[in-house]
Give the backbone structure.
Amino acid sequence: MVNSYRPTTLPEALKLMETRDMIPFAGGTDLMVKYQSWKGTLPRFPKDVLFLNHIPSLKKIEVNGETLAIGAGATLSDVIDYPRTPDILREAVLSIAAPGIRNIATLAGNICNASPAGDSICALYALDASVILSKSGGERELPLPEFITGPGKTSLGRGELLTEVRIPLKEANLQVFRKVGTRKANALSKLSFSAVAEIKGGTIDGIALAFGAVGPTVVRSKELEKKLTGKTLEEIKVLYKDIIDDYSAMIVPIDDQRSTAVYRKQVALNLLKNFLESGLLKEMQ
Amino acid sequence: MAKISFILNGEEVSVEADPLKRLLDVLREDFEALGVKEGCGEGECGACSVILDGKLVNSCMVPLGAAEGADIVTPEGLRETEKGKVIVESFADTGAVQCGFCTPGMMMAAEALLEKNNNPDESEIREALSGNLCRCTGYDLIVKGVKVSAERGKDLW
Amino acid sequence: MNDEIRKSVRRVDAVAKASGLAKYISDYNFGDILYARLVRSTRPRAKIISITVPELPDGYYYVDHRDIPEKGKNRIQMIKDDWKVFAEDEVRYVGETIALLIGPDREKLLSLLSEIKISYEDQEPAYTIEEGLACKGGAIVGDDNIYGEYNLVKGDPDTAFNNAARVIEGTYRTGFQEHLYMEPQGMVGTWEGGRVNIYASAQCPYYIQKSVSGALGVEGKEVRIKQVTTGGAFGGKEHFPDVIAVPLAVAVNKIKKPVELIFDRIEDISYTCKRHPSRITIKTALDKENNITGMTIDTVINGGGYESSTLIVLQRALLHGIGVYNIPNAHVRGRAVATNTFPSDAYRGFGAPQGLYAIEMHMSQVAKELGMFPADFKRKYFIKNGDMTITNATMKDTVKLEEMFAAADEMSGYSKKIREYKDDPYKGIGISFVNHGGGFTGNGEQEIIKGVVKMKRTGENSAALYVSNVEMGQGLQTVLRKIAAKELGLNYTDIEYDNPDTDIVPDSGPTVASRSTMVVGYLIQECAKKLKTKWDEGVGAEAEHHYKHPSEFKWDQDTLQGDAYPTYGWGINVVEVEMDKDTYEVKTTGIWTVFDVGIPMDDTIMYGQVSGGVVQGLGYASIEKCEVLDGKFRQHTMADYVIPTSVDFPQIKNRFIDNPYKYGPSGAKGAGELVFDAAAPAYADAVQQLAGKNIYDIPVTPEMIMGLEE
Ligand SMILES: Cc1cc2nc3c(=O)[nH]c(=O)nc-3n(C[C@@H](O)[C@@H](O)[C@H](O)COP(=O)(O)OP(=O)(O)OC[C@H]3O[C@@H](n4cnc5c(N)ncnc54)[C@H](O)[C@@H]3O)c2cc1C
Ligand code: FES
Ligand code: FES
């Protein structure tokens, strides 16, 4: 028999998490699909369930100094409506599902589900987001790439809940998010691409490039980004072919029911080229 | 099992059930809210749409336990309101209804949209309906139904 | 006169449906109901070695082929009765019904279901048309896997090819398509009045009656079928409901209690019939002046594990294979092949969309070879009244394609845009021309269906009509009322017309083949005229009318020669697209349609058919990918089998061209399938115009477009 709990405060929830192995339940839009059963029967949860949506403190979204903090209870709609949500995150979240799902699904859930096709994750990588993991008696902060360890896998520890997503609000005069889905709306990703760059005085002051659904986890390379940082337009032109080749080597997608490896790779590189050619170079001129 | 209370179409109700039971099943089986349809059970089709705390949600994605204390409106509630009547009549007059299986959900989506935006343009309407699938109409006349609802209900929303 | 009938009225079912009051099968309360789950084959091709069923608690039942009454037959009586109600010792596809497990508690049922163990001896399956033709793993059916073959010959194609200056060839493929009616398959069987009753979401109550009574070994009238409000069908509730109604009836016959069998969506996508995949090779012979002198078309469709109605689908594919063209010498060959996929069956268009897609793409590609624009080339070959058809009869319709083209061109700017976009790799515009024969092929209405309708005066100013045709979204309950009301001088809301019940209504035939308005509507019109003459007999006066085939149309079913259809609906679609240069995603920026449906019986209802049919066709053309992997449909959730949403396609601009049909009510012709047919070739043509490369297969995915570039 599967039990479920509906705590109304975070300490209460963490206490419960400490005592037993439970499935945290946020919006349920992944869980209810995963454990879907015959109509009129209960979803097939293998473990007890901890509802998180009755905890008001988790729903907060606020800016602390230069950091945007999104509570684990905040829905995708909340994230869209919040005025200081970075553009590419808003676009990424708007590309997820449809209004009815976005009204219950959470950003934290999208992250914890750790699907290679999780659309917010791609944007959050490019935004250098981190997550706060709390348990009774403590919390830790992990950069997102350290939290997501594989398809459906995270480094969430026993007794821990993800309580907050943190995004440093950096200057970025160039922000691009592109999703290629199976149709024009309410679609799962074949791949996605996020780019954030700050151009100052004709040189790249900072840049982040992330590719979603083209590998087990989001593809982002700080090393390659470092190569680009500080470069001028002329220097980028010289490096152009190398950059494409380097990314090409990193992007190793698969075939599945939604698309093909060949397509995913080619389009990911096309989007990168387009960003470099028309986005970046234009901004630098 | 637990006793869980919420507001259904303006009335306080409670039900003794497993908190993991889908709200969709609770509404249909325990409250005979049969206007809430099951088209997929996987959040994709919108036939099970209800308005929960003022927001459009897919009731197949919501376990009862998550809806505790919520204010829920189903087609049964909406159709009794002035706004609901305007939407029903507008849908009927524009030919927005064919097999009708998607239609109650479409009404909920229309209501949710008009609450936020009482004068939506075509692309806003299409976006607002994008989680409600219809296989019969190709959507054109549903979009028109929402437009006409907005015109006729100018003073309501 | 016609202007009046076409004036839009409010549909009779609109308010109840919109407000959530209409009752679909899952909304009924039958009291103490038992639930049923199908025990299905998990293997594409195997011998069943053994089945172990756990001990069942009281009130739980396992029903299989041994429960078929002695005088009955373990066969579903579709067009062909080869499909078994329950598999016995072999299975031919994943999902084949082996048994039903029935009981009062659904949780318990699921756990019992998981304890049923079936052991199989696997055999090598064949999935594709090629594998079927090659008899991979040995023939499934006969010694060549061919359910049937037909050949239609007009003129002397051999000579045309022998003398040809050049021959252009192409092979076109279409995939499975899921109906995805929003209401999944479902029905409830009850034991009332000492017999089996079935309440079903279905198109054809009398088809179900035939299958159920056949399996139980009783007279038709000894089972009662009641259609309930049906949430979409598109052909998917034509024959398939038999596949679940019969096992359900066998169960009810055994248990004598109400049993509900309603599919979940995933079951529905995984285990119901789809549109037949096709492979069509067309060769065109041209003379020195680049005139078409001959054509051969070789069509193969994938029928899956059982034949059911596959050959009738094949016939329609062939009869529409040459499209709207008059080709002097032609040979159309068709075969249906057996494979180990889920049996394919009826889907809006019934074979015509596959045939029309291929010929339209081919004609467009021949035009390109000859340096012409598609419409300019195709128009040279438009069939006209009096021309010879592929079945060697004269075209009896007044063909208004030229007038329709002028309208389409004026609305869409096609001729201008096709020139403008010629060298633009990111913009394209496509056009297609189709026709669709109304009603059953040939003399089927006379020989097979023999439709009967009845009407009755029920009050001072009211009457009832009795037909077995169903409302499934297409607006029939409104349209037939309008037709009857017009003759009787009543308001359409004064006509009663319930969901059919085989105890009450005569058999006016199935709700298929775009026949309900044209054929049944005409019967109602004539019946209403009769009733009018008897009106003064008072309340209770009745009239009946039987189908009679107009004598000017001749047909020989054995040779498939003669007037294949008494009349055709005609259509033109123009689709304009843009492609994203990085992602190869195609955005449809304009859709223009022109249809000749005789006289529309209601402008709004007809527009709803156009918009719904065209968008369904565009889904078929672009995003509705459905592959088979290990015998299962790979896209079997709604997340993966994607249909168009409200944002995928823009609003359609449509125009109707009047062209009344003598034997249609107020001049109406069939329209429900026609509106589907033209979208896919117009879309694919638009994409091939921008790509500058031929497209052969649908769906045209971005993945495929990318491949064209190489
Ligand atoms: C119809 C439909 C369409 C969709 N389309 C898209 C799409 O286009 N793009 C996309 O990216 N996604 C899509 N999704 C999935 C998306 O809705 C989810 O990923 C959503 O964001 C998850 O949030 P949730 O709150 O519903 O998570 P839940 O389902 O509640 O949880 C998801 C996972 O995260 C865990 N979890 C949740 N919260 C916490 C926490 N605070 N601490 C620890 N673990 C936690 C849960 O245990 C579970 O494993 C779609 C889903 C549906 C049903
Ligand atoms: S039934 Fe809930 S979205 Fe389809
Ligand atoms: S009217 Fe049939 S699904 Fe929308």
